[in-house]
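Thread: Endonuclease III, structure

OP (GT): Posting the sequence first so everyone is looking at the same thing. Length is 227 residues per the record. Can we get the structure tokens written out before standup tomorrow? I want them in the notebook alongside the other entries.
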Amino acid sequence: MGTPLEPRSEQVTEVLDRLYEEYPDSTISLNYSTRLELLIAVILSAQCTDERVNSVCAELFETYQTPEEYANAPQEELAEAINSITYYNNKAKYIRSACADIAEEHDGEVPDTMSELTDLAGVGRKTANVVLQHGHNVVEGIVVDTHVQRITRRLGITEEERPERIESDLVDIVPEDDWQQFTHLMIDHGRATCTAINPDCTDCVLADVCPSAKPDADIDLASGDPW
């Protein structure tokens, strides 16, 4: 079991320093060329791999280019186009509704505020943060996905459980200049090493500062369950 640094801000600084070195090219892995494509891709990515989303979107973005085209697409047609995505029926409904609002209420442009984005169907704070950061170059929070949620708890950076509470906790201790990259670094580390099941603690650059590190730790602090 590793020993986290105190105070938590020191733990965050050490974690960032090591992960920046480990993943120097860390960035968003979704493919898109417009703000609308980014929004669609992020909606589709909920509980689905980015690799799958990119595969589906390659054809989807050739078929539909404007909010009006998505909004006017028959539900069955759009659902069929994304049927390899998890919850594709619901996501097709969200996309059609969100695009109708974008066309009718925002002159066909993806909104650039948190409140307007989260008013769209299928768009929560996590999705809105991604769109703001990568579509509008506006960073006003930290995207908390499953990797961020899991790893920050394992590292003892937060004890919060819900994404909204985790984000509120993190913005107080993560330097604002690192908010965007913090998420990308956590995602890369979560995919490469700190996986949800059977993380590779023996080859982890954070093992000595991680209170969840196997084999010495008895508990996975992310879940609270024994290893």
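GT: Both are above now. Quick notes for whoever picks this up: Residues 120 and 136 are 17 Å apart (CA to CA). The chain has eleven helices and two strands.
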